[in-house]
Amino acid sequence: MTRRERQELIDKGLLLPLMEEFYTIQGEGFHKGTAAYFIRIGGCDVGCHWCDVKESWLAELHPPTEITKIVENAEKYSKTIVVTGGEPLMWDMDPLTKQLKERGLQTHIETSGAYKLTGDWDWICLSPKKLKLPTEEVLEKAHELKCIIFNKDDFKFAEEQAAKVNKDCILYLQPEWSKSDKMVPQIVDYVMANPKWKVSLQTHKYLNIP
Question: What assembly does the database describe for this protein (predicted)?
């Protein structure tokens, strides 16, 4: 396959830069505690300084993989498939979700929402970032809003994003892992004063699983 042919398949979403795939327990948000198969796609230019998977940023480091192989692996393990990154919406997700749906699988995505929404999703977890704000379409369709709290200013940002999502979207505040000791008490106080929000913790890290 020539480089041009490979790039055409990537542009069509038939090849994706696969960083890793694994079966584990969902650790965050609404579906925490449930088994799911994670597909981590490489490539992200949002650039959060506290990102805990910075090795996902450069798509070139991760091999372009046929989505048929990705789907075949996924269906062996779980009915719930979580596509994460990186930023998966940098790529066309329509072909991947189409094949997952054809096999009767539930499709979830974790995204910053900074790019055009592609794919057919049963659940959209929107985790917006200040450096690259989410699109209106993702805000309108998000099932949960998960705002990461690194410092006090992030509460204001969270409220700004909460004002933009649909009325049924579930609202979560989650401490950035390295700041948990400092920020958890503030998040607890904030949620108690503003009960439309819920607390989300990275429970998979407490369980010491991926």
Answer: Homodimer.
Is 25 annotated to bind ligand?
yes
Work out whether the CA dihedral 119, 124, 128, 133 comes out positive or negative: positive
Q: How far is CA 72 from CA 40, 67, 77, 141, 197, in A?
A: 15, 8, 10, 28, 38
Q: Using CB atoms within 10 Å of the CB of residue 157, give its burial: 0 to 12 exposed, 13 to 18 middle, 19+ buried.
A: middle
Is 112 labelled a binding residue?
A: no
- End-to-end CA distance of the chain: give it in Å, rounded: 34
Domains and CATH numbers, the chain: 13-206 (3.20.20.70)
pLDDT digits (tens, 9 = 90+) for 94-138: 999 999 999 999 999 999 999 999 999 999 999 999 999 999 999
103 is in an annotated binding site: no
- Does residue 26 have a known ligand-binding role? yes
Q: Per the annotation, does 7 bind a ligand?
A: no
Q: Whole-model pTM?
A: 0.94
β-strands 170-175, 144-149: how paired? parallel
186 is in an annotated binding site: no
52 annotated as belonging to a binding site for a ligand:
yes
Annotated ligand binding at 44? The verdict is yes
